[in-house]
Amino acid sequence: MTTSDPTPTTFAALGLSAPVLTALSEIGYETPSPIQAACIPHLMAGGDLLGEAQTGTGKTAAFALPALELIDASRRIPQVLVLTPTRELAIQVAEAFQTYARYLRDFHVVPLYGGQSMVVQLRQLSRGAQVIVGTPGRLMDHLKRGSLKLDELKVMVLDEADEMLRMGFIEDVEWILSHTPSTRQTALFSATMPSVIRSVAQRHQRNPIEVKIKSATSTVAAIRQSYWMVRGHDKLDVLTRILEAEDELDAAIIFVRTKVATDELANKLEARGHAAAALNGDMTQGLRERVVNQLKSGQIDIVVATDVAARGLDVPRVSHVINYDVPYDTEAYVHRIGRTGRAGRTGHAILFITAREQRMLRAIEHATRQKIALLTLPTRSEMADRRVSKFKQEVLDVLEKEELHFFMEVVGQLRDENDLKAHSIAAALAFIAQRDKPLQLDNTKGSDLPTTSEVRAPDARAPREKRDEAPGRRRDAADGKLRPYRIEVGRQHGVTPKEIVGAIANEGGLSGGQIGQIHLFDDFSLVELPSDLSNETLATLKRTRVCQQALQIQADDSTPMPAKRFGTKPGASKRPGAPGAPGKKPFKGGKPFIKRPKE
């Protein structure tokens, strides 16, 4: 069975339980996306599923919501396992489960990924959890050591299977699948469906339905799209600056995720001098129509809305759409930005993105087939100049258009009674007039927002000395020079170069480009790593275990690394433990395995 365009319904109509529906309502989910409408009923019925859908179509909820309905929360044993290609996605999926299950009693989810302390993960697993989300390498580690039991697994989800194929994890995925009960339900999701992925589905699924969701690709050519990397606590300040700086702004729709957020943000904008109003599903039809009419007539300039409330909204004067909260899927983004650029006019769509939401930015670019540019944000000094210019113009407009005789008399009395000069009185009046929006910005009140030049686009690679390759860790290779390090795990332990790369990259916070040649010997290995690894990173890697062996890493410069080739001459290296060295048996043929991992 193939589903290409299911008709969305309500979440309640899909048969979800009351606690889950309450959570969905609170976070602003109002209507299922196409993939959610297609997948949830089938998965809740216990069937296998093969889903072809891009990132950003809402597929996490498509498998997480039915999975929550199938678990027994009274039993703290793994009942749902979600396999993801990266630690970032594992964290996101685990957080999504926690959000959807906020009103389910005794629910626990544990993410398992490299880069986090094994001790912490063992402690979490010992407490019990119904849902496990993890990356292939770390899940294999736990299965091998027996800290993760899947004997009573009900649901298995493979998320972004094509990414796992691209990263070389398919064999690991199949190994994990072989350690799950044959009675499990299996859902596989992939942006593309190459033959290898289909063969995995054929071997491990039972009569799956196939769901194929086409991402929205149409955009209005007249809409200019841009984004700004923002921290959560800076959002309101950035929004205020944008509203002031956009010279062509006539009217704007600002999208947020929840009904509560519409009222909160509208009130904050009004307090900052903007004519704003909320638009959400809790408002009566009459009140909603009134807000729309006010926007059309120019009585207000800004509407803060949820996706559903703004559906069908057609106001030609809307010049800007601002995605204050990132939409949950690409379909919603396309619908949002379609509110501007109407009636042959140009429009500007602005997207606020946090560091953890960069995957959605990529998905939106893919869905719209358009690169989204970094927004140019004015500096604090430029903003002050704009305010001063605007204030001066307002004064000139009043002098030209208004009758000021009464106010001149008041100022004259104030001057005579207090022996003041007219310009001193004017300065005091200017201060009073601009008190809520100071013309002179105070640099002492916290650090300024970053300028555009200080914000790096997600695609751009920062200078080597400034790049972070893992959360919370600074890259330790300042100059890119490599040196050999010895690790106490080798062929006799069953290790492979891929396992060494995975452990060092995940636990040490290094990228593939920072790992050079790897030489496997009998009871140890040599690996090229940055010459200036920090003591903290070395201490972490010393404790890291691969194939149940602590790496005990240490620099070893006694002999240069052999040239990059498969095989060395017997006896060429006299390093203790190397082929041909006294007291050690050489490998078969006297050749160590040499491999440089792909970046």
Automatic annotation (TrEMBL):
GO cellular component, one term: ribosome
Location in or out of the cell: Cytoplasm
Compositionally biased intervals (Basic and acidic residues): 456-479
Top EC category: hydrolase
Biased composition (Basic residues): 585-599
Biased composition regions of type Low complexity, renumbered to the chain: 569-584
Family: Belongs to the DEAD box helicase family. DeaD/CsdA subfamily.
Name under which the protein is recorded: ATP-dependent RNA helicase DeaD
Organism of this sequence: Denitromonas halophila
